[in-house]
Protein 1
Amino acid sequence: MDNRPIGFLDSGVGGLTVVKEMMRQLPEEEIVFIGDQARAPYGPRPAEQIREFTWQMVNFLLTKNVKMIVIACNTATAVVWQEIKEKLDIPVLGVILPGASAAIKATQTGKVGIIGTPMTIKSDAYRQKIQALSPETTVESLSCPRFAPIVESNEMASSVAKKVVYETLASMVGKVDTLIMGCTHYPLLRPIIQNVMGKQVKLIDSGAETVRDVSVLLNYFEINRSRKDIRGDHRFYTTASPKGFREIAEQWLGQEINVEHVEL
Ligand code: DGL
């Protein structure tokens, strides 16, 4: 048993798609979340900056005495997960490997698509992981630089969101039977993405897949929170305005939350 919280980080609200799955699959666990909204999106930034900002969030989470860290951001996972995992003595999970494995299991035709931020696509991390595990699977990659900003500005239901998703995904339609939403912001656009791709295409939520791995690791290291202690005492931090964060978060999580501003 270990009643310390689990830390989650993202450039912004995208990591909440992982948190929502956490609350569903492991409701007894306590969560500390940080979103670096003041500096989002990370996707178009140079790798060195993403590395620096991600370490700042990791160090912040360590001050909260977390027992595990989930890098709930594909962009940060692509750039710096390996390094963080090697340096810390608590388990550190990224979202790319779980998403890649789930896509290999899901595809029937061996044709997988991956959409993500410019940095995630440039890193080629998904293609490399998929082809290392399943060399015969082909991977179509597409950078979607406009998706995360739409989510950050809470415009998921707008006509602009529909237009941008339709236009951006046009070149992917009909080419794959499985599409990895390789950015934790994208599940907030899921209905539009599904509509564009067609209902026969299986969408993989890399964050949701990661929560299954969280569960396995908690069991393996025997560091689950005791079930009697469900308190739902989650804490959320943003580097921008708590008001903007709260609006999206409460709508997405379907519950009231505590949000504080933090300077990194
Ligand atoms: N949510 C992040 C990801 O999974 C990053 C989006 C961004 O800041 O560009 O890649």
Note: The first strand starts at residue 6 and ends at 10.
Protein 2
Amino acid sequence: MSSRKDIIKVKQKGNRSKEEGILMPVISKRAAGIAPSVTLAITAKAKQMKKEGIDIVGFGAGEPDFDTPDNIKEAAKKAIDEGFTKYTPASGIPELKQAVCDKLKRENNLDYKLSEVIISCGGKHSLYNIMEVLLDHGDEAILPAPYWVTYEEQIKMAGAKPMIVDMTETGLKLTAESIKRVISDRTKLLILNTPSNPTGMTVEEEELKKIAHLAVEHDFYIVSDEVYEHLIYGDNSHISIASLGEDIKKKTITMNAVSKTYSMTGWRIGYCAGPEEIIKAMSNLQSHSTSNPCSIAQKAALEALNGPQEFLAQWRKEFDERRKYMVEKLNQMKGINCIEPEGAFYAFPDISGTGLKSMEFTEMLLDEAKVAVVPGKDFGADNNIRLSYAISMENIKKGLERLEKFCESLSG
Ligand code: GLU
């Protein structure tokens, strides 16, 4: 119900008098239903508290703590000095599209033409464009849970219905069998995110093949979010579902960004490759919403994709050490059970043994122990919390010590 504060009196066109004007909500129904991004909110809150001098450990940030590499920064400085500071084509500069095509060929065994690629203002923007051009009111989008908070909101913003596949029943692993149960004649797409934010779990080749088969057979699209592809630990390596055959390639939009891979979260460059018709619709949408992604950031992203890649192995090694440490420690805590994540930089422990749900746990932890984590509720898993290990080992140790004491205090 709208309160008096939320409404304005408007004069209707036609034969109503001003006095008879109807009460109209200020905020559109479409926007009023959007929840704020809890991941961004927690990250901002932890940063703010730190600024205020509060000794807080923030496990919220979904961004690497490494600095953006110097060669990438230099490319941006050069772009500014050379005056590359004006509009570019709305869908991105051809050189960067070519670098994306080369990268997809080199790393993902995928062949795309420039007209099948679009550059957007970050991975989130790429996804937003996809949802807007693919989903109509009444369509269904299959969303495996736990899911990254933004997918659900973007599906709803597009007027479609998220059809949840509960992965907690399958050890946080996505299976074709569980997807099958929610397919209907309204299914338009499936969100595939491997490695996953927030669980860190991956989907292996055999399962990917089965999922691809379902998409082709039931004629729905796969939105493949591959932003964590470089962060897979152990012997597995990433496989792009679109590379499994021509049929599935036609039904897939592969989405990626430079944000996580190159520690460029603030530069806001994401990209997609997929069927020309879909990319064209996304470009049209983009041309009327944001226009081009930042010209300087595009030059930086070009250097990121074409420049040296060797440091990525070192970063992965560091993340892996933190991952192992964190999972071992979490599993020693009272009431906590953590499945070992296979990729990305998140641990997603089950906290049900503490007797608390995620919101209460998170609020008490912040208040009493000055540790910020993200509640699982907004990821569709109220028995879990998310901890990012994209922070220094020193802070991980300090934060986990506090968390351990907090868990002790709950049972005591
Ligand atoms: N994707 C990151 C996260 O999940 C960044 C924050 C956001 O955009 O949601 O923390």
Note: The chain is about 40% helix and 15% strand.
